[in-house]
Amino acid sequence: MAGTGRRRNILLITCDQWRGDALSATGHPVVKTPNSDALAREAVLFQRHYAGAAPCSPARACLYTGLYQMNNRVCRNGTPLDDRHDNIARAARRVGYDPTLFGYTDVSPDPRNRAPGDPFLRSYEGVLPGFTTRQLLPEHQKGWLSWLAARGIDSSPGFPDVHRPAEAGAAEVSNAVPVYSKDETPAAFLTGEFLRWLGEQDAGEPWFAHVSFLSPHPPFIVPEPFNTMYNQAEGPAYARAATLDAEKASHPFLAYHLEHHQNKSSFIPGAPGKVGDWNEDEFRKIRALYYGMISEVDSQLGRIWQGIRDKGDWDDTIVILTSDHAEMMGDHFMLGKGGWFDGSYHIPLIVKAPGHQHAAGSTVDRFTAAVDIMPTLLDLIGATAQPHLDGQSLKPFLDGEEPAGWRDAAHWEYDFRSVTDGATEAHFGTGSRQLNLSVIRTETVKYVHFGGGLPPLLYDLVNDPGETRNLANDPAWLAVRLEFAERLLCWRARHLDQSLALSELAETGPTGHFLRLP
Q1: Which positions are catalytic?
Q2: What residue stretches are annotated with the Sulfatase N-terminal domain (predicted)?
Q3: How distant, in Å, are the alpha carbons of 158, 297, 338 from that of 164?
Q4: Positive/negative CA dihedral, 248, 253, 254, 260
Q5: Calpha distance 156→264 (Å, rounded)
Q6: What is the value of pTM for the model shown?
Q7: pLDDT tens-place string over residues 335-370
């Protein structure tokens, strides 16, 4: 079908909590991802790609809207997405696509458009407006659980207990397998549903699918052969302080986060205590499982690539492979995401775009961001990205060009308010509006500014890539601290909400850009 001039198919894949360095295509010393690597050989691999926020809902809001958190204002899981914002699905629908979801988007609906008793307002796992839902698979995973039951597997424990080892008496951290096989994982189920839908699509009619995998998000367990694929003794050294107590003492936020938001049970069902209680050996066992989970979802990517080829659509399909945010995986004695460390925000991005393959097989070392996905996709399908978006189209890189005026730093934000119970506000003695941080990260320096009076952070990434020594109060670095504080302020001033600020009413009538409400 290549060269017919018809609109391209679109496949947007997110693999939840996948670290940007955990691909063999980027030179990881341990992880093997042959199917992601195969895609990269026909695409462009962006090596310095960063999430805009964490955890899931804020990160996905940046990806889906093309707006930084300061503008989309999704602060936490459960923060509603203002319905006035455009998004990637609505924009594609306007030019004739029917964006279809497999998995989840973790978007909380705007409550102002619903009755107070609407059940949609009881969960943050809503669906991004504009998507047609083919197979919803939120965290409770009920669609997958019923599928397992139909195959004769006891899935009655439900989520998350179905992800405990099938073997009674297994150690708290072990490579014991679950009740399901490699062909029965949530990723395998979702892949099968996508391929079944793909076979229903009419020849010549362009399609848009968003496959949103939960893997390699915890619980950390994986079936054979992935459970023993990696040796726990292998892997890079952890970036962390000498001891857990020293890590806690390095900043008030870390002291709070490590004590109150790092529960073992969030990562291994039923495990009591804190993540920091695990020893080096246990952290390494968990990391080996995480690597195995990455390889498991990579194996499903291979099924997807082959299915699209078998249908004859590969040469006419835009493929975007990325994640929402990353995973600390033992760095700084943490699992999960949050805070300011690269381990939480550096994510994969591979883009294959038929007709824009002059740079196929190449890598890009410039800083790119989750907010770039929406304007890039719209650019590739001939739609117009509205000028108030914070992201920039990556299409020039796909054509082997170096865009003029490209950013020389990555930025992200993290909000740690707790509106429902007010626990964080009570701990720090401040209001919800102050509980946030902003990051500017260049090749050599990272600066972190807090909104509520907590001390700033400054790292020399050349000599301290693990971010273990805060130089914010070092007299020799005060000039650098001031420079980066000013750069961060300039960034925020430039990106303040522009949805109406790029327009003006004059005697001749409205001029400039107007955000059209959906």
Answers
A1: 56
A2: 8-382
A3: 10, 19, 25
A4: positive
A5: 23
A6: 0.96
A7: 999 999 999 999 999 999 999 878 899 999 999 999
